[in-house]
Amino acid sequence: MDKVFVIIGAAVIGIVGIVLLSFLLSWPVMWLWNNALVGAVVGVNEVSWLQAWGISVLCGILVKSNVSTSK
After folding, report:
1. What is the C-alpha end-to-end distance of the chain, expressed in Å?
2. Distance CA 36, CA 45 (A)
3. What is the largest CA-CA distance in the chain?
4. Dist CA 63 CA 57 (whole Å)
5. How far apart are CA 31 and CA 58, in angstroms?
6. Does residue 66 carry a pLDDT above 80?
7. What is the pLDDT of residues 6-48, one digit of tens each?
8. Residue 11 gets which letter from DSSP?
9. Sign of the dihedral defined by the CA atoms of residues 54, 56, 62, 67, in that order
10. How far apart are the C-alpha atoms of 47 and 49, rounded to whole Å?
11. How far is residue 62's CA from residue 71's CA, in Å, rounded to a whole number?
12. Of the candidates 9, 2, 10, 53, the residue with the CA atom closest to the CA atom of residue 28
């Protein structure tokens, strides 16, 4: 029974780590959007950190690399 709790705990820690890393990696998206696009493109508004996270997730879904090693 203890082994099940260890596996569940490791899975929860892994998921939380991935979510925290994705939030950390959304900061450059927010910075680039707010500092590069807002001044250069008319009609573009600043984005918040959560919106930048959504943009990062959406781009990750839309631009997924498929590497095939089969010969």
Report:
1. 44
2. 11
3. 60
4. 10
5. 17
6. no
7. 999 999 999 999 988 888 889 999 999 999 888 888 888 999 9
8. H
9. negative
10. 7
11. 26
12. 53
pLDDT for 71 equals 65
Alpha-carbon span 26 to 31, nearest angstrom: 9
- CA-to-CA distance for 30 and 28, rounded, in angstroms? 5
DSSP line for 13-67: HHHHHHHHHHHHHHHHHHHHIIIIIHHHSTTPPP--HHHHHHHHHHHHHHS----
Look at residue 1 and give its three-state secondary structure. Answer: coil
Q: Which residue has the tokens 């450059």?
A: 28
CB 33, CB 48: distance < 8 Å: no
